[in-house]
Amino acid sequence: NKYGQIVENQSDDGEPKGTSGQPSLNALRGAGLINVGVLIVRYFGGIKLGTGGLVRAYSGAVNEAINEAIKDGGVMKFEIKDEVKFFTPFSLMSRFEHYFATKNLSEFERDFNDFGAIWSVNLNEAEFAELFKFCKEFEASEFKFLALPLGSK
Fold it and tell me: What's the rounded mean pLDDT across residues 86-105?
């Protein structure tokens, strides 16, 4: 959430208590996944699995889905990124374009006005530290930060 806390929820939705939701959530936790959800549809096939069988079936289904997602490249590393906004005059535009290109920071927005551009980019802590160091040499010019990440020092 916006406070950096992981919020979790699970439900057994009609299955015996602790046999579906919790094992599924534990499989997600074990894989270190966040910002994901899992929905399992189970059809009764006439054989009663018992509580142990249900736990193995649900956790096994989630683990199989996780493995498929990893194999297909559907899982990516989670990073906390905060928005940074800054103003550059036209005279500094090419320097910042070059900086963003060399750092592979291709996801940014610019709003142009009569004097330059207001840049908006989401950066992790290390990326912001590098950008801040780069910007130090432009303090005497018309460059200025407009919004800094909450965790910046």
Answer: 94
Task: State how far the Cα of 134 lies from the Cα of 73, in Å rounded to an integer.
Answer: 33
DSSP for 2-65 reads TTS--------TTSSTTSSHHHHHHHHHHTT--S----------S---HHHHHHHHHHHHHHHH
Average pLDDT over residues 49-72: 93
Query: Which amino acid, 10?
Result: Q
Nearest to 153 by CA among 128, 123, 122: 128
Sign of the Cα torsion 150, 115, 106, 126 reads negative
Q: For residue 81, give the nearest of 151, 153, 8, 7 by alpha carbon.
A: 151
Assessment of whether the complete model's pTM goes beyond 0.90: no
Cβ count near 84 (within 10 Å)? 22
Alpha carbons 113 and 8: distance in angstroms, whole number: 44
The four Cα atoms 25, 26, 30, 36 give a dihedral, to 10 degrees, of 0
